[in-house]
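User: Some background: our group keeps a shared notebook of sequences we're curious about, and every so often someone picks one and asks for a predicted structure to add to the entry. Today it's my turn. The entry only has the sequence so far, pasted here. Could you supply the structure so I can complete it?
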Amino acid sequence: MTSLLPFTSDVIRAFGWTLMHSFWQAFVVFACLRIVLKIWPAASSAAKYHLSFLSLAGIFTWFVATFWRQLSALRETGESVQLVLNAQLTAVPAAPPAALGVADSADIMPGMEVYFPVVVGIYIVGVTVMTIKLVLDLAQLQHIRKAALPQLSGAWDTQLKTLCGRLGIRKKLRCTFVRRYRCR
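Assistant: Of course. Here's the predicted structure to add to the notebook entry:
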């Protein structure tokens, strides 16, 4: 695998394996969340929200831990190979224990590492596009708040309070009307 900088090869390999592992890891977390929600159908929406948020945080944490483990294993393997080459030994010693996880992954999906630069590139482009979309949507929301009509008539305010009472919403809500708005 060719790389632009000496350290990017290991980073791309580690990130590629992390992406591959994140599919089954996220599925395990999702399955656990679904089981908990099936067992606890009467959970409040706040509890469901917090469980879902905890699941997403768990997926992210597991992703970061896997990336760190993969990168450490690749670097340890590289250092071991460099030591062997520098010592000019004829027999190659056994791989260090941390490198076994990487070797096992490569044995499961042989030839996959060739596609990692493309996979990582697509992932980075996707995250970049979604980040740009998030920033534009937040700017659009800010524009809606600034372009809103300042006063509601008493009828709308009464309707909003009645709806909040029927839905059991205790927080104060604000209803916003915009004269002209074009959805994208």
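Suggested note for the entry: The chain has two domains: 8-114, 149-184. The radius of gyration is 26 Å.
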